[in-house]
Amino acid sequence: MKKNSILLIMAMLILTLTGCAQHKSEKNEDYYGEIIAGLGDEEQFALEDIGEKNDVLFTTDATYDDGFAHDAALYCNIYYAMDGKTYHLGRIESMGTAYPISYGKKCIYTASQHSLEIYVIDTSDHKLVLKEQYETVYGEDDEVSYLRLKDGTEEAVSEEDYLKIYEEYQQSYVISFGYGASTRSPSGRQY
């Protein structure tokens, strides 16, 4: 019990020192303090302001140096506080170190060599939703086409549209994980 109390106090101190505005820091302590205190020795976290009412908490047990000063991850768990409670929204995964999990305005990106996914937080149902998925498809004669899945409907999109959405991903902010305030990079560091 004493160890959990110490961990909770350390987590609150870490959240206070992460550079968040005081009001957000207080909310983060209330919402995410116990989750952070309960992380294992090898688990890392990031708190990011993606443009929602509250910061989003990301946790992972495996990171890598992406070559741009980020401790990036291929997979992570996502938590979000709403309606006075904290919800585990699920786990997402990118496919390869060239495609770190990142975020844009009110969205979270995962990708692979031939696909790109855009997730959003659905506050009414308290869950993470796959808003759009883009895929590169290769035909029999090496012909390339592009598909988009949105709202359960699949449709062909132009290469120009595909490249535009992929450019948005490349301009997004890589989530940089850390063990505490001293290793956490500031929000808004661009990939």
Oligomerization category of the chains in this entry: single chain
Low-confidence stretches: 1-9, 15-23, 181-191
Count of domains: 2
Mean residue pLDDT? 84
Rough outline:
globular
What is the CA–CA distance across the termini? 41 Å
The helix-strand sequence is HHEEEEEEEEEEEEHE
Figure out the total of helices.
3
Main sheet specs:
7 strands, antiparallel
Instruction: Please state roughly what percent of the residues sit in beta strands, choosing from under 5%, 5-15%, 15-25%, 25-35%, 35-45% or over 45%.
Output: 35-45%
Write down how many β-strands occur, each being a DSSP E stretch of 2 or more residues: 13
Tell me about this structure.
A hairpin with a 5-residue loop joins strand 10 and strand 11. Helices cover 23% and strands 38% of the residues. Helix 1 packs antiparallel against helix 2. It has 2 domains: 38 residues; 136 residues, no CATH class. The termini are far apart. With 191 residues, the protein is α+β, with helices and mostly antiparallel strands. The chain is built from 3 helices and 13 strands. The strands form 3 sheets. Strands 12-11-10-9-8-7-13 form a 7-stranded antiparallel sheet, with helices on one face. The chain is globular.
In short:
The chain is of the alpha+beta class. The chain has helices spanning 2-17, 22-37, 159-170; strands at residues 44-48, 56-60, 64-65, 71-72, 75-82, 85-93, 102-104, 107-111, 115-122, 127-138, 144-150, 153-157, 173-174. It folds into 2 domains: 1-38; 39-174, no CATH class.
